[in-house]
Amino acid sequence: MSKKKTVLIVDDHPLFREGLKSLLAGHSGFEVVGEAGTGREALLKAEELRPDLVVMDLSLPDQSGIDVTRSIRGLLSETRIMMLSMHSKIDYITEAFQVGATGYVVKESASERLIECLETVSRGEYFIDASLSHQVAKNLMESGEKAAKITDAGYGLLTSREQQVMRLIAEGLATKKIAEKLFISPKTVENHRTNIMNKLDLHSAMELVRYAAKLGLIDVDLWKS
Amino acid sequence: MSKKKTVLIVDDHPLFREGLKSLLAGHSGFEVVGEAGTGREALLKAEELRPDLVVMDLSLPDQSGIDVTRSIRGLLSETRIMMLSMHSKIDYITEAFQVGATGYVVKESASERLIECLETVSRGEYFIDASLSHQVAKNLMESGEKAAKITDAGYGLLTSREQQVMRLIAEGLATKKIAEKLFISPKTVENHRTNIMNKLDLHSAMELVRYAAKLGLIDVDLWKS
DNA sequence: GCAGCAACGGGATTTTATCCCGGAGGCAGA
DNA sequence: TCTGCCTCCGGGATAAAATCCCGTTGCTGC
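YS: structure for the whole thing
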């Protein structure tokens, strides 16, 4: 490797930052030149250090990593940003790429994954954690500016309206509430739900929620806190 | 230092574990001999490796770090456990020490704090993160058994039968199935459910599932695979 | 124009939930 | 022992929701 890539670490947990630093210290290709614990700090450091890479946590105390990413990308077009998150919800991933992130890795991954991602991203290529559905990744690549659609064996069979209804059901909204939200009759919502369940071969509300969780339509981790 | 202290790391984020490992590798006093990502795994490794120290994350996918700590302390009286958490809530800290933890550090702390804690704990002394109020520490020592049952405000109100029914509901079983399983009338199951919802102030099946997920009655992570 | 599909919703029926009721049995205290 | 209290159990009446089958509208492609 010609020269080390400079890295800025942004995460609100100092311990995690230290860990990452130690980890990257063991790899000759990267050099951690700075770290930040808040979004504000991240922006200042990024502007000052102009790093090649930024490892960005999604959740920061003062603002979302999404916003920070957007800001940094606006300032430094050469700097590549790698998103690190606890969540694998499709919305987050989509958003991250839309604001200019080049990589996305979940914290559940092994460290090799992180290194791999950094190497890929430093070459300017996109990287999406392989533990995320391949379909998701594919769509993200293809869609470009558009919002990524989720495809699944069954989910693709649903019409857009049905997908919309399904999200609301999965989020736990009652039939009536969904009807109000969409300005349609509760009866229609029920019909949509029936169709959804037939197409996906589901037989209860709970199965639907699990299915949605598997696809990343909803983030069940949020329930735990 | 006479010889290295063996350390077992328990955290559900591989990246965080790697980071800790790298961090501790830079200190001659400790040697990471194993790691675990779940409570179950932690117990097995602890029994197998009999480490001097355990660095334990509070939140694990399958069960609480509190439970794991209790179990390990029951098995290995020589092993000291250091709690690592994102939360500085008094409840957690209290509980951690009550089940046999010897140290408590929040993830917001710097890495020096962690090392300091490990050194202190390995000598068998108690360590509480200085960023936590002194009052907290004081209260901890005094309170003893008093605040023992923190489990949950509402869940304790349920009778054992109701708790049993609640589990089954949370697992997604239909009313009818639950009735069959418990050899009672569907009507009775419905009555139990009504009582449960009243006592816990829940208003839909989904809320119940979320509540159950929060308490750890069910493992929503299993849905994702 | 017509076939096909999506979105919408009605009517009749069945299933489920809700609210209120009471009985059997265990258990603690007077 | 008797009395009150609570749990567990289930019934009956009623309200709500789901289910099944039906038709209308409107758009699209041939």
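YS: worth flagging: Residues 159-162, 184-185, 187-188, 191-192 of chain A lie near DNA strand C (CB under 10 Å from a C1').
IM: good catch. Also Chain A has two domains: 5-143, 155-224.
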